[in-house]
Amino acid sequence: MADWGKDLWDQYDAIAMHTQKGLEFLDRFSAFYKQRCDVEVKYAKDLKNLVKSFQPKKKEDEDGQFTYYRGFVRLTNELNDLAGQHERLAEELQQQIVVKIQGQTKELRDDRKRHLDEANRIQKNLEANLSQLEKSKKLYEKAYRESQKAHDGYLKADANEELSKKAVQDYQLVARRRAEEYEVAKQDYAAKLQEINGFQKNFYGQMIPQIFHRLQDVDHRKTMQVRESVKVAAQIERRIQPIIDKCLEEMVRSAEEVSSEIVNT
Known about the structure:
single chain, rod-shaped, 4 helices
């Protein structure tokens, strides 16, 4: 298993896309079970309506002396009970799967956003530091050029016998000032370079890996949610299936009691 913090430290966009697709899958996964619940509810309703439409009427009471008719009545009663189990299945799937997935998806989406926001924040911090380093470098290079130029100017002035001593001293003062400015700029650039090198080491060695580890945990929790939901859904159906099987057994029993003889009541 890949370590996102170690192996994918430079794959921010790929990680952001992967985790987004994972959450989109959870949305689809939740929608699947929501529609599954709707199917079960509709099926149960249709079964109950079917049973209701075939309930015996008073004028058919005389048919009750026939076993086939009594068997049919028992069949519809069991079918009504079976419909109730499909309603129960829908209710349990809704509460234990759909609601839970939706809650977990919101939590994971919030966590993902927080981690990505943190990554963006420190990325902007890095970019700001690099920008400051670039400005410091340009000031250093400018100070170096001006120092060299002032030094060269002083050497030329010192070699020029036509210039007064005071004029030469002015050139010398400018050269010294530029040299001092250069030293300040050099020290500032060196300090900034050391600072940004330390920040980059921490950025790539700790901060980003830690965030990517947390995003990997978001992805892991998403995967485990899918796994657990499938298991729970199957367990729900397993708990209900024996009752459905009993309804079917009763239907078979009612059929076996059918005969061509009239039942005395």
